[in-house]
Amino acid sequence: NAGVTQTPKFRVLKTGQSMTLLCAQDMNHEYMYWYRQDPGMGLRLIHYSVGEGTTAKGEVPDGYNVSRLKKQNFLLGLESAAPSQTSVYFCASARTGFGAGRYSNQPQHFGDGTRLSIL
Amino acid sequence: GENVEQHPSTLSVQEGDSAVIKCTYSDSASNYFPWYKQELGKRPQLIIDIRSNVGEKKDQRIAVTLNKTAKHFSLHITETQPEDSAVYFCAAREQGGKLIFGQGTELSVKP
C-alpha cells in the first residue's frame, strides 16, 4: 500500500495563478484533511471531509476550495494564489471510529507534503 | 470550536534526562488526543495517542497522561536520546471529526 500520496511535491506559482493539489489514499479511509504548516504556527486545518461528497471548513478556509468526488481523492484548489498562501501543505486521512464517538479516535495518516511557493 | 495550546515552544535537555510537553484543550467533548513527531522536512508521524476513557498510556520510553477535568494532557519522554530531537505536536479531535493541533514544541536533546 502507498498510504497517502500527494502531488505535486513542489510548485512555484505567480500571484493570481490557480492550481489544484491532489491527495490520494488507498486505505479506504472515510476522513480526509488538508492542513497548512507555517513556521511557528503548527498545523492548521484548512478543510476536511468525513465522507465522499462531503466537505467542511476548518480553521483557515479562506482562499481555498476542496472537492471529494471519489472516496480515495481529496482535492485542494487555489483559485487565485496569493503570497500569503506560501506554505507546506499536508494531506491526511483516517478511518471511522467505532463505538462512542463515531467520528473520533482513529489516528491520522499523513502524506509527505507539498511545498508551495507563490511569488 | 476546539482550541489547543501547547507549551513550551522549545525544550532543550541533556541526553538521558526526561522531557515533558504539556497541552490544554478547550472543548470538553473532544475525545481523542494524539501526539505526533515531525523531523525536519518529513511528514508528522504518530508516536502515541490516548482516548478520553483512559487516564494514562505508556509505550516504552513514551507516556501520555490525560486529565479530562482540567482539560489537559501531557507527553513524557524518559531517557531521552539525540534521535528524539524533533518537533512534537499534540492534537485534539472534536466529535465531528476535526483534528486541531497545538503549535508544536521543538525538542533538542544534547549528547
Task: Provide structural commentary.
The complex is a heterodimer of chains A (about 120) and B (about 110). Chain A is mainly beta and about 120 residues long. Chain A has strands spanning about 5, 10-15, 20-25, 30-40, 40-50, 55, 65, 75-80, 85-95, 110, 115-119. In chain A, the strands form 2 sheets. In chain A, strands 2, 4, 5, 6, 9, 10 and 11 form a 7-stranded mixed sheet that branches. In chain A, strands 1-3-8-7 form a 4-stranded antiparallel sheet, with no helix packed on it. The model of chain B has no long low-confidence stretch (mean pLDDT about 95). Chain B has strands at about 5, 10-15, 20-25, 30-40, 45-50, 55-60, 60-65, 70-75, 85-95, 100, 105-110. The interface of A and B includes residues 94, 100 and 106 of A.
Summarize the entry for a quick read.
Chain A is mainly beta and 119 residues long. Chain A is built from no helices and 11 strands. Chain A has strands at 4-7, 10-13, 19-25, 31-38, 42-49, 56-57, 65-67, 73-78, 87-94, 109-110, 114-118.
User: Which residues of chain A sit in consecutive blocks of at least 5 with pLDDT less than 50?
Assistant: 99-103
The residue fraction in helices of chain B comes out at under 10%
Overall mean pLDDT of chain A stands at: 90
**Largest contact between chains:** A-B, 31 and 27 residues
Q: SSE string of chain B, helix = H, strand = E?
A: EEEEEEEEEEE
Shape of chain B: globular
Q: Given the structure, what is the number of helices of chain A?
A: 0
**N→C terminal distance of chain A:** 36 Å
How much of the sequence of chain A is in beta strands? over 45%
What Rg of chain A is obtained from the alpha carbons, in whole angstroms?
14 Å
